[in-house]
Design goal:
Layout lengths: L3 E7 L4 E4 L5 E14 L5 E11 H10 L5 E14 L5 E14 L36
Parallel strand pairs: 4-6
Antiparallel strand pairs: 1-3, 1-5, 2-3, 3-4, 5-6
């Protein structure tokens, strides 16, 4: 089974592009802190490249930005390629099946993410009703 679940912060703004056939693809990376410290007391951080396709990728590009905390669910995918010098390399991507936005709306100076003001609750005014003439007893 190839499943991964990560919670971390975006290290840069997501990049939304399209394939030659018009399918949306969003690339972003997240920094995930390890839950232990090294001998010198420093916490280590791992960085993961993530890919989200189609509507999910469009949503990530629209609503997430550098510094936002996200939960990523997906699978690990290895890519083999040659760099510009002809050296064979392996890339590791997290292919997202779901992304949850964990940063509350309106935080970190996000003008685009302002939550609407709560509607005022109106209390219906009760009016007195005096119509004892129609009571049958």
């Amino acid at each position: 089974m190839n499943r991964v679940f990560l919670i971390g912060n975006l290290t840069r703004d997501p990049e939304l592009t399209e394939t030659s056939s018009g399918i949306a693809i969003c690339r972003f990376s997240i920094a995930v802190n390890r839950n232990y410290s090294s001998n010198d007391g420093e916490r280590k951080t791992d960085f993961f490249n993530c890919v989200a396709w189609r509507g999910l990728g469009e949503n990530v590009a629209r609503y997430a930005k550098k510094g936002n905390k996200v939960a990523v669910m997906g699978s690990v995918e290895l890519r083999n390629y040659e760099d510009s010098q002809g050296v064979k390399r392996t890339g590791v991507d997290i292919v997202c099946s779901d992304v949850e936005f964990l940063t509350p709306r309106g935080s970190q100076g996000g003008d685009d993410y302002e939550a609407p003001a709560p509607a005022e609750k109106k209390r219906a005014a009760l009016q007195s009703f005096d119509d004892d003439s129609d009571i049958p007893f």
